[in-house]
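Researcher: Sequence recovery benchmark, item below. Answer with residues only.
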């Protein structure tokens, strides 16, 4: 089995460190990818810190992967050596349940195989993108369109699809009023994508400190949620609220901002249960929903949409030894707007 360099969490509390891991041999349906860039998603931090439950350490995270094909299996005809490719949050699914057959393997009823922290078919725990190479079934590999800069594309593989999917599902377009709560990695892409779909976009951030950026990304309005009057000013306004916040929020305050038949969709994943008053849903026939990444087909659609509309994630490129500091900055909401690891620094 090939041994490759990686940057792994040894426990829930110790810093991530350089190590090596084993990757499987490239099977007939597999693609071996040399990873060039890996985005840092807040989910990486939730998982390694044990927020979502027990973890088998050491664990390599990272599910925003951009790299190039260096080897293809004997039965792979749709990818060739040298292709620029991406891998997102999942690397397999059961392929036979109702949801998989409907092309929505992100909602696989047996649970899709996540890029990290899942039990793979061979019984090993999957290891993510903070490493130099990964072997992935070709059906879970994405094509990176020309026109999106290589060093900036990785965040689309999770943050991009996670926000694109609900915006597309709830048919956001010209005339839609969309609010994005939290302008971090997911949030800044939600603003860009919703604006490109033609919506009037409002950002609800903890403060006004990133207002200029929000407007540059395509928002028309920008409000601070630390100011209580925001919730009076915006009552009964939005068709769709996309909540990207990684911590619990007072849901009722936000639900009241929905107009008739409006929906608040939660993509933020705090571990705690969130209470809400059903009476808040009765008013304006409001809905509260969740959404999990997107299918492989929809991820390709999103990449092509971003290429067509010139949507590029705002990234800060870092070396692998800066990852632990970057985690602290993400936790302080001090991210502009996605850290991307230059995986060359792991080859040194
Ligand atoms: P992020 O870059 O840290 O952004 C989260 C933003 O939420 C922050 O930038 C901040 O925005 C706001 N925020 C943070 N703490 C807050 C608090 N205590 N109160 C109010 N606002 C707060 O994280 P991310 O990578 O975008 O991920 C966001 C969440 O989505 C995480 O929980 C992640 O696990 C989850 N996620 C879910 C899916 C899915 O499929 N559903 C996929 C990917 C990620 P402001 O500074 O603008 O207030
Ligand atoms: Zn993610
Ligand atoms: Zn399935």
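Model:
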């Amino acid at each position: 089995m090939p041994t490759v360099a990686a940057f792994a969490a040894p426990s829930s509390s110790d810093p991530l460190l350089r190590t090596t891991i084993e990757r499987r041999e490239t099977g007939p349906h597999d693609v071996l990818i040399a990873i060039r860039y890996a985005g840092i998603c807040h989910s990486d931090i939730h998982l390694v810190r044990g927020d979502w439950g027990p973890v088998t350490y050491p664990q390599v995270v990272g599910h925003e992967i951009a790299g190039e094909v260096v080897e293809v299996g004997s039965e792979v005809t749709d990818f060739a050596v040298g292709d620029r490719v991406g891998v997102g949050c999942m690397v397999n699914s059961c392929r036979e349940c109702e949801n998989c057959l409907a092309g929505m393997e992100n909602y696989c009823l047996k649970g899709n195989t996540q890029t990290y922290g899942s039990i793979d078919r061979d019984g090993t725990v999957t290891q993510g993108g903070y490493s130099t190479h990964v072997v992935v079934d070709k059906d879970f590999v994405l094509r990176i369109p020309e026109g999106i800069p290589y060093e900036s594309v990785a965040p689309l593989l999770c943050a991009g699809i996670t926000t694109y999917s609900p915006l597309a599902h709830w048919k956001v377009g010209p005339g839609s009023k969309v609010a994005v709560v939290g302008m971090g990695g997911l949030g800044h892409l939600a603003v860009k994508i919703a604006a490109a779909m033609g919506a009037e976009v409002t950002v609800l951030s903890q403060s006004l400190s990133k207002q200029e950026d929000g407007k540059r990304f395509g928002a028309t309005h920008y409000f601070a949620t630390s100011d209580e009057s925001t919730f009076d000013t915006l009552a009964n306004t939005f068709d769709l609220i996309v909540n990207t916040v990684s911590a619990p929020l007072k849901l009722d305050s936000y639900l009241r901002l929905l107009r008739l038949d409006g929906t608040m969709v939660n993509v933020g994943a705090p571990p705690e249960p969130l209470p809400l008053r059903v009476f808040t849903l009765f008013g304006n026939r409001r809905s509260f929903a969740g959404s999990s990444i997107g299918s492989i087909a929809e991820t390709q659609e999103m990449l092509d949409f971003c290429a067509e509309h010139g949507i590029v994630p705002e990234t800060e490129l870092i070396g692998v030894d800066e990852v632990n500091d970057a985690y602290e900055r993400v936790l302080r909401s001090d991210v502009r707007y996605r850290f991307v690891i230059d995986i060359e620094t792991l080859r040194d």
